[in-house]
Design a protein that fits this description.
By secondary structure, this protein is α+β, with helices and mostly antiparallel strands. Helices cover 27% and strands 18% of the residues. It contains 10 helices and 12 strands. Helix 3 packs across helix 4.
Length: 383
């Protein structure tokens, strides 16, 4: 779980105390551990000169180490920007960076990549820390300017460039927003270059972070990099109740974890018969109510009755085949799964009343009696 300070873009964590430059202790968002760091390259092969640099939150980019500077993972470096320079932390280097480039940017051209200028000195780090500390105040001022104009938008995060000559404002809005007047007001107020980036609700949650209903940190702010669309059919296939309060995450959208086990459910449902087929019996038509995919059980019930009959998928197929031949079973009770009550012997035995609620009362009474006797005894004066 990320620290309170370094997860929001730098600072000194309370645990590792490495000023937010650690890469193995879980302080960084979307961190990558280099398992190939201790493996030597084959003879004659040069080290890959592309580095992955992490900025605030989950923003990362690839830069070229043209000067062949000795840079390790966790070093704070100064990199080239569109105007001026920026400061970031090296998250991946070496052969693992080559894998990340193939994974994230297939059309990446190394010769066109921006360059690493140098390893950051103390002056660069001080300016970087100052920029991070001023971001929250800058965000509040920008929100006030947006409210004064009457724009329907929410500025959720601000990121300074390392040299404090530019600021990126991340905002969310339901539709298109004409923020040309807002940029003019912010440029005259803050005296810097302004860039506006619209993000979705899921991207906003990944940047801000938080704790999910499962008790763990949000997946989008720790390891999830791609945000795939989640539909209500994913909940239907998993036999979940369509309750928006339970299915929605902190972003207000359907939880991304609904897609995690969807493939396993779809694969398991292939062996089940169709649920819209009624089971015809002499008692009447039975309707499908619910399915347990991993137990292979389907529950059916009759209209007007509350009792449900658990059947295996094989039994359901057998009844459907007999219905096609014109045969109707008398009732579903002959086909249902008979669940015997099995009492497991855990091997636990009550040793000397250890699970008794009143097992300490006797000792308490003895101590109370001793204390009362001591109080009643008169103190003998020394002659």
């Amino acid at each position: 779980m990320s620290c309170n300070s370094c997860s929001s873009g730098g600072g000194k964590p309370n645990g590792c105390r490495t000023n937010g430059t650690c890469s193995t202790s879980g302080c960084n968002k979307l961190e990558v551990y280099d398992w190939l760091a201790n493996i030597d390259l084959p003879g004659g092969q040069q080290t890959y000169d592309i580095l992955e640099v992490r900025f605030k939150n989950s923003r990362k980019d690839f830069y070229r180490n043209e000067q062949k500077i000795n840079i390790q993972v966790g070093d704070i470096v100064v990199v080239d920007a569109a105007s001026g320079f920026d400061v970031g932390i090296v998250s991946v280097a070496g052969e693992l960076a080559r894998i990340q480039v193939r994974k994230k940017k297939k059309d990446f051209k190394p010769l066109e990549a921006r360059k690493v200028i140098r390893i950051a000195n103390q002056k660069d780090i001080d300016l970087w820390i100052k920029a991070r500390s001023n971001e929250k105040e800058l965000m509040y001022k920008a929100r006030t300017l947006a409210l004064n104009i009457g724009l329907e938008m929410k500025i959720s995060d601000v990121e300074y460039q390392g040299d404090m000559s530019k600021a990126i404002f991340y905002y969310t809005a339901e539709g298109r927003v004409d923020f040309r007047q807002l940029i003019k007001d912010m440029a005259s107020e803050f005296r810097m270059r302004i860039e506006m980036k619209q993000i979705g609700a899921r991207q906003e949650s990944s940047r801000l972070g938080g704790i999910g209903s499962c008790g763990r940190e949000l997946c989008c702010s720790t390891w999830l990099t791609d945000f795939r669309s989640v539909s209500t059919s994913a909940a239907r296939y998993q036999q979940l109740s369509l309750n928006p309060q339970k299915l929605a995450g902190q972003c207000g959208k359907l939880k991304c974890c609904l897609n995690f086990e969807l493939d396993a459910y779809l694969e398991g449902l292939k062996s089940f018969p169709r649920t819209d087929v009624r089971l015809k019996t002499q008692k009447g038509d039975a309707y499908h109510v619910k399915t347990d995919v991993f137990k292979g059980t389907m529950w059916y019930g009759f209209r007007g009755e509350s009792e449900l009959y658990p059947l295996t998928s094989a039994r359901v197929k057998e009844i459907i085949e007999s219905n096609k031949k014109g045969k109707k079973p008398s009732d579903l009770k002959d086909y249902q799964i008979k669940e015997a009550a099995i009492v497991e012997d855990t091997g636990y035995s009550n040793l000397d009343g250890q699970d008794s609620v009143s097992r300490f009362e006797k000792s308490f009474k003895k101590n109370n009696r001793k204390n009362s006797r001591r109080k009643k005894r008169p103190n003998k004066k020394k002659e």
